[in-house]
Design brief:
CATH architecture of the largest domain: Alpha-Beta Barrel
Radius of gyration: 21 Å
CATH class of the largest domain: Alpha Beta
CATH topology of the largest domain: TIM Barrel
Strand order of the largest sheet: 7-8-6-5-4-3-2-1-9
Number of domains: 2
Largest sheet: 9 strands, mixed
Number of strands: 15
Structural class: alpha/beta
Distance between the termini: 32 Å
CATH superfamily of the largest domain: Aldolase class I
Shape: globular
Strand content: 15-25%
Amino acid sequence: MPLGLYIHIPFCRSKCPYCDFYSVMPSGDTVDKYVKCVCNQLRGYDNYQFDTVYFGGGTPSVIGAENIAEILKCADITDNHEITVECNPSDCGDGGFDFEKAAKAGINRISFGLQSAVDSERKALGRRAGAQDVKNAVKRAQSDGIGNISLDLMLGIPGQNEDTLKRSVDFCFSAGVKHISAYILKIEECTYFYKAKDRLNLPDEDETADLYLKCVELTEQNGMKQYEISNFAFPGFESRHNLKYWRCEEYLGIGPAAHSFIGGKRFYYGRDLNEYLNNPQPVYDGSGGDFDEYAMLALRLTEGLQDSMAFERFGFHIPERFFEKAKKYEKNGLAEITDNSISLTAKGFLVSNAIIGDLLT
């Protein structure tokens, strides 16, 4: 089967105060060197085909559509593909990221970092563009032939409440996007938010849970279906690439901090751009794809852990202890059980780590 391909673009013009992803400021000819390095690596995988490609970061739009198109030339991509590029709306004004060139290169999906449509919340998150800039960027992409647009939202951010969340969700639907990702803010070490966490006006844990459930409710009211803990889409517009992760399928990751899962083995590249440019050596990260890992990932999806799919892959049925343990969560409205599957509800997703950990022991 074709693999998924993840390309990490480790460049950002500035660092958002909540972000822990690996990125550096572009300088000199570093971008050119990086593109050449990525292309050289991809040529070493010419015996693989890819049906999904995801450019993440960092901020992929920083390097421009021309460089992304150059990278795509070096990969064997199927005709029936999904190619996603994460874009910062600040890079997509006049003279910025060229969506027309991107579309001609085969890119057919764009993910924009909205986070919030409320400008005061965006400012607190360190976002340079305003909500109107985001809407303009979405329109540019759509008019240049890329209609499959996703917007990222963040939940539990400084100053957020249910009214401001509704404004952000309404904004997404008024922009005509096909997909929404909504992530609960996690304060990571080595970020500015971690240093300033005692001064942030954050919703408490219960308020954040209510915001999450409100987001599920609002997206469903507008016709989108939740298909994963943090992801919602109109039917047919689910992220094919991310579904590979959650269905424990194989993928190749290129770039510093990128992870791969091929042939039952996992490996990654360190978080060091210079090291990657000088001598890109993957670090072995053990084997993967056993039943426990498969079950853990499947339970992130609303389709849940399905017995027929597990049997097809492993040759045995879901252990009965899974169903027995899941019954107590079903009684509390945290899980749903059928003869063939175990899945978590929206409320269950809020405590998914604890439930999944219990089911696996």
